Amino acid sequence: MIRVGVLSLVVLCFISSLRVINATEEDEAAALLAFKNNLHDPTNTLKSWNTDNGLPCSLLVALWLHISCNSKQVIRIDLGGQKLKGKLVPDLGKLTALQSLYVILNKVSMFEYWIWIQENIYIAISLQQAREFRLKIQTHEMRVHHFY
Q1: CATH classification for the domain delimited by 22-135, as one of 3.80.10.10, 3.65.10.10, 3.40.50.2300, 3.40.50.300
Q2: What is the pLDDT of residue 109?
Q3: What pLDDT does 132 receive?
Q4: What residues does each domain of the chain span?
């Protein structure tokens, strides 16, 4: 349990902020669709992520499954254990109210774009993802050190 807490702290310590001010509902929908388009979804989990169904947070409840909203903004994405494969995309930085991103028990890589993810966001990842993240950070640090 301590190991998971330490890994979560390590992940959060290395995450920087890149916020988009006043993202619109359309911006948030576009960000979610960009993420969806970057995922292999064999069980059609994200079928409801479609603007034909309206915008994700346009009503009192989220119209798109696995999304939670507050004041018409996405605050949580819960995709744990959905058999998804792919990568996070920088567009998720447009979700300015996002507080939680659960991608545990999937094959979703977060490491190419770790810099743009907002600070103070809780990210649930697997131990393997955390190990890969640590390796990516170490590799990045070695490259930076090599330039000096």
Answers
A1: 3.80.10.10
A2: 75
A3: 55
A4: 22-135
